[in-house]
Amino acid sequence: MIRIGLRDARAHLGRFAMSIVAIALGVAFVVGSFGFRAMMNDQVAQMMATNADHDVYVRGTDRTDDGDDGSAAVSASGVSSSKYNPVATDLTGTIDAVPGTEPVAVTYAVSGLVLVDGAGDPVSTMGSPTLGIGMSAEHPWRAATFTAGTYPSGDGEVALHEFAARRAGLTVGDTAKVVYDDGPRDVTVSGVFATSSAQAGAIILGLDPATAKHYSDLKTSDPTTTDAIGVYGDANGGAPLTDAQQRSLADAVNAALPADAHAHAVTGDEYRAEATSSTQDALGFVQPLILIFAAIALFVGSFIIANTFSMIVRESMRGYALLRSIGASPMQVFATVIVQALVLGAIGSALGIGLGWGMTELIAAGLARMGTPLSGSAAPSATDALTGLAVGLMVTLVGAAMPARHAAYAPPIQAMNETVNPERPVARRGAAGAALCVLGAAAWLWIWRIAAMDGVPTGVPALDGFAAWTGAGWPLGVGAACLVVGVIVLGPALVGPAGTVLGWIPAHVFRVTGRLAARNLARARRRSANTAAALFVGVAIVSCLGVIASSAKASVNGIVDTGLKADFAVMSASSGRIPQGAEDAIRAVDGIKSVSANRFLFGAKFDGERVRGMTFAAQDTLFTDVFAPEAESGDANAALRGGQLVVGKDIADDRGWKVGDTVDVSTENTVVDEDATRKAAQDYQDQVAARIAQLQTELAQQTAARQVAAAQQTAAQIQQIGDEARQVDQSRFVRTTTRRVSRQVTVGAIIDNSVYRTCIIVNDALGDELGTKETMVTMAMYLAAEPGQDLASLETRLREAVRPYYVVSVMNRDDYKSTMGSMVDQVLLILYALLALSIVIAIFGIVNTLALSVSERTREIGLLRAIGTSRGQVRGMLGIEAAIIAVFGTLLGLVVGVAAGVVIRATYAADGLEVLSIPWGQIGLFLALSVLVGLVASVSPASHALRQPVLDAVGDE
Q1: pLDDT confidence bin for 438, thresholds 50/70/90
Q2: Which of the residues 11, 408, 506, 553 has the least number of beta carbons within 10 Å of its own beta carbon?
Q3: CB 541 within 8 A of CB 897
Q4: Is 598 helix (H, G, I), strand (E, B) or coil?
Q5: Which residues span the membrane (predicted)?
Q6: pLDDT class for 254, splitting at 50, 70, 90?
Q7: How far apart are CA 84 and CA 59, in angstroms?
Q8: Is the dihedral of CA 827, 829, 831, 833 positive or negative?
Q9: CA distances from 200 to 158, 273, 615, 757 (A)
Q10: Verdict on whether the full-model pTM lies above 0.90
Q11: Nearest to 233 by CA among 137, 135, 105, 100
Q12: Closest Cα partner for 879 from 937, 946, 947, 943?
C-alpha cells in the first residue's frame, strides 16, 4: 500500500503544485520567525560581548524595580544594570587599589545626542539611537580598535565608530557638529574606530571622559552614583581574562569593598549573560507576532490541501473501490492517501525551510540597506528546521485526513459507479454554521453593550458581575472564533444563493457562459466554499485592521479639530526630550500667547504606590489653551490652578478616588547638598594651602642652606600642586543628599478625555516641589499664538528658532494630524505586508481549485467545445467561476472584518477610538481587486483546458 501511495503521489505531483506552494509559504514563516529570533539573539550576544567587555562589574546588591532613578552613568555599551541599586562612583578609588586591575574609572554614556555631518544634515538610522561614550588612552574601551586617528581630547573633539563615520561621510580631521541637550557644539573628528560586532545601526561617538561625565551629570539626579563600574584586569597583558581569572579578580574586589557600600562584584561573563537574557526577552515579542501570521497562512493553506485531496480522492474512487474489492482494508486505503500527504508535506516543508532561511537573509539585507546592519547568524538551527518540517507535515495530514477517511469508508460497490458520489447535502452543516454565527454575534453584542453602558450592561447584578469578570477580551475572542468558524461551516450552504445573486449580472451579460459558471459552482458547493474561505480569512483580518486604522486616524483628527486649541505642537526625535536650549528659544519668539510644556514626573507615588499611567506637571494654560477637559466631576481648570490633582478617569476608577479625597503624593530625589559641597571644596583648598605653606617653609630653609637641587625640586612640587588645584574636577567635591518630599494633595477634578484618561496632572509649582530639574524632562510643548498673528509667519520664526537643534520639530495643526496618522500607518504597513501572504496563498487556492476542477471536467469541457463553444467562451466561463468565488470570499471577509472593526472600535472608544470611520474606498478597492484576482487566477487553468485536443478530452477516462 505504501508503494501504491508513492505511485499515486508521483502521478498527481503536478496537481499538488499549489498545495506545495501553500505549505512552503506557511512553513517559511514559521522557520523565518525562529531564524529571525535566533539572528536577533545572536546579534544581542555579540553586541554584549563587544560593548560590555569588562572582566568584572561592580553593581548594587539590592534588587529594585524602579529603573527611573535618572542615572546615566553606565557601561560602554549603554547597558544598564538598573535592576539593582546604584553604587557610589567614589568606589573607583577602592577598586583601583586592588592588585591586578587596570586603572579604574566610571564609563559614562550619554544618550539623546545628534551628530550633524559637514553638510548640516543630522545623521540617523531607522529606530537606532545615537550614543556618546567616554573613552581615552588612560581609560580605553578595549573592544574598540582605532583604524585612523586617536582618542578625543576636550569637548571640541569626537571619535566616530566606523559605521557612524561612513554614514556621515566624515574622516579624521573633518569638522562636524554634535547637538547636546544644551545646544550644538562644533567638533573635529579625532579618530575612527571599529568594533568586532555590528552595532545594529547605532551611531556611536567617542567623547572625552570629562565631556561625557558633564553631559551625563546633567541628566541624572545623583551624579555621585552609577549603575555599574566596569573593571579590566591586567593579568593577560590587556587581553580578556579567563573565567577563572574573572572569578579570582571579582573575589578580590569584593574583599576590598566596604561593608556598607551596598555593592558587589560579579564576573563579566555573569553580567553579560544577565544583560543578554534581559535584552533578548525584551525582543521576544517579535517572534509570536510572526508566528501568528504563520498560523494564519497555514490555516488558509489547509483549505487548499483539503480541496486538493478531496478532488484527487474523488477522481480515484474507482481505484480505491477496486483495492477494497480485492481485500484491502479501510485502513490500508486510508494509508495510501496519507502516504501522498506525507510526500506532499515533506516536499513543501523542505522548500519552506529553505525559503524561511532566505527570508531571514533578505530581512537582514533590507535592514542593512536601511541603516541597521546586523552581524548575527541568519541560518536556521536543526531544531528550527525540524519544527518547520513537523508543522508542514501536521498541517498536510490534517488537510488530508477527511478526504482519506472518505476514500477508506466509501462502500466499494457505490464507489465503482462512475456516476455516483454526488455531493452530500449541506443543510445540517448550514444549520450548525448559522448557530455558531449567531453565538458569535451575541458575544459581540454583549461586548458592545458593556462598552455602551460603561461596564454595566444590564442592571442585573449577576449579569453585571459576569461582565466585570469576563471583561472585553474573552467575549471578543470567543465571538471572533465563533464567527470565523461559523462562516466557514456555513459557507457551502451560502454558495448556491451567492452564485445566483453574484452570477445574475454575468448570466444576463453572458447568457451561456455566465449560467454555466453559476451552475458549476452550485454542483461543488463544498469545494467552492473552501476555496472562498481561504480568501475570507485574509480579507476579514485586513478589513478589520482597516476599520481600526481609519477610526484611529479619524479619532486623532477629531481630537485635533475639536479639542486641540493650541496652534502648534513641538516634539523631539532625540529620545523624546526637548532640549532646554530649544525650549528657551521657543519662548523667546515674538507672537506667542502661551507656551504649555508638559514635564513628566518620574517616580511619583500616590499613597505609597505607583499608578498605571503618567504623571506630569503642566502650566495653568493647559486646559484653556491646549486641550479642553471633559470633566466627569470637579472643575479641572480651577483644580490645576489651585495646586490640586487632576486625575484621569481610568486611574480614578482603578484607585477608587473621588473629588475631595486626599492623597499622599511622595517622591524621593537625590539633590546636591550645597553646604556640604561648599565645605568639601573649602576643605580641599585648605589642605592645598596648608601643603603649599609647608613646602614654602621647606623651600625657604633649603634656599638659606644653599641646597639648590632640593630647592628646585620643592619649587617644582609647589608649582605642580598649584596647577593640580586649579585644574581639579569640581564634581569631586559634590555631596548629595536624598530629599524625600511628601504632600497631602486633594483630588480636585476627574476628567474623561481620551487624551487624559491615564494621566495625573499637577501644576508647575507642585511639580517643582516633588521633582528636580534633572528628573523632570519636557517631552511635548503646545503653543498658542496671540490673536491676530499671521500663523504662517509665526511658524517660520519658530522653525528658525529650533533649527540649531536639528531634531526638534514644530508642527502646525495639519502637520500634527498627519504625524499622528502616519504613526498608525507605519504600524499597519507591517501588518498588511505580513497578511499579504495569506492573500497570496488564497489566490493560489483559487488557481488550484480551478485547475483541479478543469481536470475533473475534462470530458465536459471537451463536449462543450465539440458542440461549438468557442475558446473565448470557455475562458469566460472559468473566469466568471473564479471571479464569483473571489467576490464571494471577499464579501464574507468584508462583512465579518468590518463588523469586527466596529465592535473593537466601540470596545475601546474610551481609550481614544472615539470616532467610527469605515474606509468605504478601501472596501470598494477590495471588491474590484477580487474580480481582478479571479480573472487572473483563471488564466492558467483555462489555458490548460484549451490545450487538450477536443477528441482526447471527449474520450478521457
Answers
A1: very high
A2: 11
A3: yes
A4: strand
A5: 12-36, 289-313, 333-357, 385-405, 426-447, 478-507, 528-549, 829-855, 876-900, 920-939
A6: very high
A7: 7
A8: negative
A9: 21, 19, 33, 36
A10: no
A11: 100
A12: 937
